[in-house]
Design goal:
- The chain contains five helices and six strands; from the N terminus they run E-E-H-H-H-E-E-E-H-E-H.
């Protein structure tokens, strides 16, 4: 089992005991507003993702546990382990603004480059969530511009 410690956190694979804390986090619309996990709407949706994704990928999905009270306050994950990987991270609202993502991210980005065949690590954020962009800058990432979103229903390209 891959596990790391930082000054304030234990970075470790998600465990069965994390179910309730992670479910609370990922069913909170504030937490998932800009994440791929917006599609998890019910406890059943979460249970499927918990089993098939969060528990099934111990080398690429890490829980962020506080050392002082051993609470799961977030997660950090790699999507892809060859060439380019995309990072996703989330925190419980009570953990926002404490610098946990930067603390964990610095260690886990090193882990990603050291252990996977990565040439590049990317992350994306919504322009309406500039705090996440600042986190990425603190992790040493560089802004490469805006991604365009196309709506399939309208058949129109953005102007």
């Amino acid at each position: 089992m891959v596990q790391f410690e930082t000054k304030r956190l234990v970075l470790r694979p998600i465990q069965a005991d994390d179910h309730d804390a992670l479910q609370t986090m990922l069913l909170d619309p504030r937490v998932v507003a800009y994440l791929r996990y917006q599609t998890l709407k019910t406890a059943a949706d979460f249970d499927a993702a918990f089993t098939t994704h969060f528990l099934a990928n111990p080398a690429t999905v890490f829980g962020l546990e506080t050392k002082y009270d051993h609470q799961l306050v977030g997660f950090f994950e790699f999507h892809g382990t060859t060439g380019t990987s995309e990072l996703t991270y989330a925190l419980s609202p009570n953990a926002w603004g404490h610098g946990y993502v930067v603390e964990a991210g610095n260690r886990l980005i090193d882990y990603g480059f050291e252990n996977f065949a990565l040439d590049r690590i990317e992350a994306h954020y919504a322009s309406v969530n500039p705090r996440s962009g600042r986190v990425m800058a603190k992790l040493g990432m560089h802004d490469e511009g805006e991604l365009m979103t196309f709506e399939l229903d309208s058949g129109k390209r953005p102007t």
